[in-house]
Known about the structure:
The complex is a heterodimer. Chain A has helices spanning 36-43, 52-68, 221-224, 379-385, and strands at 22-29, 74-81, 88-96, 102-109, 115-123, 132-140, 145-155, 162-175, 180-195, 200-215, 228-242, 253-267, 271-283, 289-301, 332-333, 336-337, 342-353, 360-372, 388-397, 400-406. Chain A is mainly β. Chain A has two domains: 9-96, Ubiquitin-like (UB roll) (Roll); 102-406, Beta Barrel (Porin), CATH 2.40.160.50. In chain A, the strands form three sheets. Chain A has a 15-stranded antiparallel sheet with strand order 19-18-17-14-13-12-11-10-9-8-7-6-5-4-20, covered by helices on one side. Chain A has a three-stranded mixed sheet with strand order 1-3-2, covered by helices on one side. Chain B is α+β, with helices and mostly antiparallel strands. Chain B folds into two domains: 2-98, Glutaredoxin (3-Layer(aba) Sandwich); 109-258, Glutathione S-transferase Yfyf (Class Pi), Chain A, domain 2, CATH 1.20.1050.10. Helices cover 65% and strands 7% of the residues of chain B. Chain B is built from eleven helices and four strands. Chain B has helices at residues 2-22, 39-55, 67-70, 89-98, 109-136, 138-150, 157-175, 183-201, 214-228, 235-241, 244-258, and strands at residues 26-30, 60-63, 78-81, 84-87. Chain B has a four-stranded mixed sheet, with helices on one face. The termini of chain B are far apart. The interface between A and B is medium-sized, with 17 and 14 residues. Chain A: It holds the Pfam family Omp85. Chain A: Belongs to the SAM50/omp85 family. Chain A: It is a multi-pass membrane protein. Chain A: It is found in: Mitochondrion outer membrane. Chain B: Keywords: Membrane, Mitochondrion, Mitochondrion outer membrane, Protein transport, Transport.
Amino acid sequence: MSEKTFHKAQTIRDKAVGCPSIVEAVQFHGVKITKNDALVKEVSELYRSKNLDELVHNSHLAARHLQEVGLMDHAVALIDTAPNSTQGYVVNFLVREPKSFTAGVKAGVSTNGDADVSLNAGKQSVGGRGEAISTQYTYTVKGDHCFNISALKPFLGWQKYSNVSATLYRSLAHMPWNQSDVDENAAILAYNGQLWDQKLLHQVKLNAIWRTLRATRDAAFSVREQAGHTLKFSLENAVAVDTRDRPILASRGILARFAQEYAGVFGDASFVKNTLDLQAAAPLPLGFILAASFQAKHLKGLGEREVHILDRCYLGGQQDIRGFGLNTIGVKADNSCLGGGASLAGVVHLYRPLIPPNMLFAHAFLASGSVASIHAKNVVQQLQDTQRVSAGFATQATVTRDYCRSM
Amino acid sequence: MSSSGVITQLVTDALSMNAAQDWEDVSLFTPYLNDQALMYDFADCLAVQTFLRMTSLPFNVRQRPNVDFISPDGVVPLLKINKTLITGFNAIVDFVHKKGVTLTSHLSETQVADMRANISMIEHLLTTVEKFVLWKHDETYDKVTRLRYGSVYHWPLSTVLPFLKRRSVLEELADKDWDAKTMDEVGEQADKVFRALSAQLGTQKYLTGDLPTEADALLFGHMYTLITVRLPLTNITNILKKYSNLIEFTKRVEQQYFKQ
């Protein structure tokens, strides 16, 4: 192929609609471990391309999809004419398969403002069908640890973006808002997919978590009373529309997400929790970005026992109401926060990227929120009456240091 | 003479008022006594209740599945007075003493020392015997300990947590060089304790005479537990039955403090 010259797709884009095409062959160059049936699923749609323009477009989609589902590290489609045929084409994919093993170190700042370091190792496309295994160990300067191992299997096929995954994790964390420590051992099964013509993101999760809450000396008795081992089995279902250009500090687009968690068939926890998240961002003149977010949570206990302190609604901190300590809004006993049965939060942000543009931002915000007690008789009234507000201006940096090495 | 008597009276009044004032909203947190508490925890919870009844101080018993976690140091039972938490038999007795309420004011120093020795023997030797039977003896573990300890948890924790606890208790026994003991040797240890206590009690009403002390409360807690407990292994109870004055003592205390 080296003696041939290939041109970029733009050269004939939108000019070849009337040019009929027959795909005679699809060839892969650089495949060692990827299974044949996986490749067939990924590219069989190419044979349905009616004209050259469609073929060019579809080949590009196929190459991108190969990378996005984790089958390939890199993939480029080259379209060649077939010998002995005027309408025949051969699609060649030049691919690079994932490295056999990857490992890395990453240092950063978590959403709570703690410095953390994580070590990770993983293997992509373990069985040649895009299956991925990854492990991660994270620790923060405050002494929190988390070990996590997960396996993911994508469903292959034309423009399919769905997968199932299984995760096991163990974490030890300090919770300063209620002066206690929690150990968690969890197993989580998840399905990610789409609904309604791929417009709606859909996630289903099955959680089994063994939690051990240990109150410190400073904890209020109402926290201490809840200490010990509890088991939570829950089913979570979430649907979302996401048109944002990026997940963090989006400059345009909206996110609407509704999630429901039901716990109660097995285990100690029994409740229904509904969470609604709305976010919108729009660019303004002079490089400013206006963003707004709204979050509502509601929790209803189903058993005789009150909902466990670990399952309640919390508010406060950088991810919602800035200016308050993490999870510190709402009902308190002594110096411990007890969480609530419902919460509301609304925030308006104004950003202006500084130099360098994707790392440093000027940021102004106005936030308001409230948490209603788990025992509140009139939740709406209490949410109105306990409204807390914060406003501020800051220069914000998003910094992470990455060190990655492939082996 | 009379003036000093008045002052003593004033001080005593002030102290008792103070103690009464602070002694409000007192709760004793225990495990579920019928279904969860293990022999030695049951005995300690009963001992504290007996002691508080002997002092006539009012309290409520609150049974919780997670008292070992509510307790700051994992020791049960837990006494809560306002925001003060006191755990374990000895600390509770000391606390009550600091409040000016004591059962030992009629005793000489020697008698107090004897009483302390009795408490120490029950706490160290008898509790270890009870732990040995519950955690080391396989049949007892399978039929009683595992089920009671796991009763407040759902599966799989009801299996995992007794297993982990057994491991740590067996380590504790090994640290005391008790892991290689046979059941007969453990029975001898129990016999030694019972014999000493039985001799001390003699024909008296209580260990130190006609008035009860905290040692009597602790003794009653353990004796009552050993007499009433249902275990696959009956040797310890059978040894205890040889000492009829201990059995009589237990019946007497039960009658006086729990059947009125």
